[in-house]
Design goal:
Elements: E1 2-3, H1 9-25, E2 33-34, H2 37-41, H3 49-61, E3 64-72, E4 78-86
Parallel strand pairs: 1-2
Antiparallel strand pairs: 3-4
Length: 88
Protein backbone atom coordinates (compact mmCIF):
# COMPACT_ATOMS: atom_id res chain seq x y z
CA UNK A 1 0.00 0.00 0.00
CA UNK A 2 1.40 3.37 -0.99
CA UNK A 3 0.23 6.60 0.62
CA UNK A 4 0.97 9.55 -1.70
CA UNK A 5 -0.39 12.45 0.36
CA UNK A 6 1.64 15.30 1.83
CA UNK A 7 3.57 14.86 5.04
CA UNK A 8 2.67 18.38 6.17
CA UNK A 9 -0.40 20.52 6.69
CA UNK A 10 -3.91 19.11 6.81
CA UNK A 11 -2.94 16.10 4.68
CA UNK A 12 -0.37 15.09 7.28
CA UNK A 13 -3.17 14.66 9.81
CA UNK A 14 -4.96 12.28 7.45
CA UNK A 15 -1.74 10.39 6.73
CA UNK A 16 -0.94 10.04 10.43
CA UNK A 17 -4.41 8.65 11.16
CA UNK A 18 -4.14 6.25 8.24
CA UNK A 19 -0.72 5.06 9.46
CA UNK A 20 -2.13 4.54 12.97
CA UNK A 21 -5.04 2.54 11.55
CA UNK A 22 -2.71 0.24 9.63
CA UNK A 23 -0.65 -0.34 12.77
CA UNK A 24 -3.82 -1.33 14.62
CA UNK A 25 -4.79 -3.75 11.85
CA UNK A 26 -1.36 -5.34 12.30
CA UNK A 27 -1.49 -7.43 9.12
CA UNK A 28 1.91 -8.80 8.11
CA UNK A 29 0.64 -9.21 4.55
CA UNK A 30 0.29 -5.45 4.06
CA UNK A 31 3.41 -3.50 3.20
CA UNK A 32 3.00 0.23 3.68
CA UNK A 33 4.99 3.13 2.30
CA UNK A 34 4.23 6.80 2.84
CA UNK A 35 5.74 8.70 -0.08
CA UNK A 36 5.13 12.47 -0.02
CA UNK A 37 4.43 12.82 -3.74
CA UNK A 38 4.03 16.60 -3.74
CA UNK A 39 7.10 17.13 -1.59
CA UNK A 40 9.30 14.79 -3.62
CA UNK A 41 8.10 15.82 -7.08
CA UNK A 42 7.52 19.55 -6.65
CA UNK A 43 8.74 21.78 -9.47
CA UNK A 44 8.25 18.95 -11.99
CA UNK A 45 11.00 16.75 -10.52
CA UNK A 46 9.40 13.54 -11.79
CA UNK A 47 12.77 11.77 -11.62
CA UNK A 48 12.25 11.59 -7.85
CA UNK A 49 9.62 8.90 -8.49
CA UNK A 50 12.61 6.58 -8.86
CA UNK A 51 12.89 6.75 -5.06
CA UNK A 52 9.41 5.27 -4.76
CA UNK A 53 10.15 2.63 -7.39
CA UNK A 54 13.26 1.60 -5.47
CA UNK A 55 11.22 1.22 -2.28
CA UNK A 56 8.39 -0.88 -3.77
CA UNK A 57 10.18 -2.66 -6.63
CA UNK A 58 10.87 -5.98 -4.91
CA UNK A 59 7.31 -6.25 -3.59
CA UNK A 60 5.78 -5.45 -6.97
CA UNK A 61 7.97 -7.96 -8.76
CA UNK A 62 6.89 -10.68 -6.33
CA UNK A 63 3.21 -10.42 -7.26
CA UNK A 64 1.44 -12.30 -10.00
CA UNK A 65 -1.74 -11.64 -11.88
CA UNK A 66 -4.70 -13.37 -13.45
CA UNK A 67 -6.10 -12.25 -16.79
CA UNK A 68 -9.29 -13.60 -18.33
CA UNK A 69 -10.98 -12.74 -21.59
CA UNK A 70 -14.63 -13.64 -21.96
CA UNK A 71 -16.21 -13.72 -25.39
CA UNK A 72 -19.94 -14.28 -25.64
CA UNK A 73 -21.56 -14.71 -29.04
CA UNK A 74 -25.13 -14.11 -30.12
CA UNK A 75 -25.77 -17.85 -30.16
CA UNK A 76 -24.82 -18.10 -26.44
CA UNK A 77 -21.44 -19.72 -27.14
CA UNK A 78 -18.84 -18.71 -24.60
CA UNK A 79 -15.09 -18.88 -24.72
CA UNK A 80 -12.87 -18.09 -21.78
CA UNK A 81 -9.13 -17.82 -22.04
CA UNK A 82 -7.03 -17.25 -18.99
CA UNK A 83 -3.45 -16.69 -18.11
CA UNK A 84 -1.99 -16.79 -14.64
CA UNK A 85 1.51 -15.46 -14.29
CA UNK A 86 4.04 -14.62 -11.67
CA UNK A 87 6.12 -11.60 -12.49
CA UNK A 88 9.79 -12.53 -12.34
Amino acid sequence: MVNLIDKKGSQQKIGNKFTELLKQVNDNHVDYTWFDFHGECKKMKWENLSKLITIVDSELMGHGYFLATLQVGLDSRQAVTDKTCNVV
